[in-house]
Amino acid sequence: MEEIEKNSAPLTVPLVPLRDVVIYPHMVTSLDIGREGSVAAVRRATKNDRYLAMIMQRDAAQNHPAMAHLYREGSVVKIKQLLQLPGGMVRILVEGISRIHLLDLREEDGCLMADIEDVQEKKGDPVLAETYRREIIKEFMEWTQHAKQNLSEEAMEQLHATEDPGETADFIASQLMIQPGVKQEILQLASVEKRLKKVKQLLDVEMEICSLEEKINSEVRVNMEKEQRDYYLRQKIKAIHHQLGDTGSPDEEADSYRAKLKALELPKEQSEKIEREISRLASMPPMMAESAVIRNYLDWIFDLPWHQESKDNL
C-alpha cells in the first residue's frame, strides 16, 4: 500500500456507517463509536494500517445497515487516536484522506468490509476556481460574524493555510449549519467548480437568513422598548395621581366606563362611537377642560334608560 501522503488507500477496508455525519477529506474530527459491528471495524483497522471507510446512512434509524441503506460516496479516513470508553464504546480521532465510491460490501468476522475506489477530483479552470475560493472565504468570514459562529484558532489557521479551492469548499461546508443530506450532496461533487458554486449558493442563503433574523430581532427589540416605555409612563402617571390625591387614574376611569358600556349591550355603531370617546378620555390629562366635557357626556350617556320602555297614552 502507498503512503498516506500520496492520498492513496487500499481497495478493501473496514467500513463504519455514519448517522447524520459527513466526513470530508482533510477534515479532522472525533467520533464516538458504539455499535458492535462498527467497533469491530475500528479494531480491525487499528490492527492493520488504520484506514477506515466512512459512509453516511440514508436512514439514520437503521441499526444494521446493508449496502442498500448507504450512500455510494463517502470518505476513507485514517485513525489518529483511539480511546476506550465505558460500555464497550470507543472514541476515535480521524483524518479524512480522500473521496471514495463504494463498489461492494460484505460482512467478515463481525464487521463490514468495503470494496472501494478512489474518486478523482475534476479541477476545471484554475483561475475561476481561485476566484470562487477567495469569494467564499470572504463571505464565510462575514457569515461567522453575523451568525455569531466563533471558529477555533486551529480552524482559522486551517482555513487561511489552505490554498486548494476544493479543500476550501469542503472546509466551509463542514462548518455551515446545513442538513446532513446537503453536506452529502457536496461530498458527492467531484467537480471542484460545481462544489464551489454549491457552497457559494449555501452561503448566500445563510447570509439572507442572518439578515432576516437581524431584522426580526430589531423589530422585536423596538416593540419591547416601546412597551417598556409605555409601562414606565403609565406607572409614572399613576404615581403623580397618587401624589395629587386623585382617587383613580385615567386608565381606571376608562375601564369603569368600558364595563358600563359592555353591560349595556348596545348596537355596534353606537358602541363604537362611545368607545372612541372613552379612548379620548383615557389619553387626556385629568385636569384638561375637554376631559370634563367628555366625562359629562359619558355620564349622561350611561344615565339614559337604554332598555326601558314606557306606555304612551295618545
Which key terms come to mind for this protein?
51% helix; Archaeosine Trna-guanine Transglycosylase, Chain: A, domain 4; disordered N terminus; 314 residues; single chain; alpha+beta; Methane Monooxygenase Hydroxylase, Chain G, domain 1; 6 strands
- What percent strand? 15-25%
Portion in helices: 40-55%
Task: Indicate the radius of gyration in whole angstroms.
Answer: 35 Å
**Order of helices and strands, N to C?**
EEHEEEEHHHHHHHH
Overall 3D geometry? elongated
Number of strands: 6
- The CATH superfamily of the largest domain appears as LON domain-like
Q: Class by helix and strand content? A: alpha+beta
Q: Which CATH architecture of the largest domain is right?
A: Roll
The overall number of domains is 3
- Spans of 5+ residues with little confidence (pLDDT < 50)? 1-7
- What profile does the largest beta sheet have? 5 strands, mixed, barrel
Strand arrangement, major sheet:
1-3-4-5-6
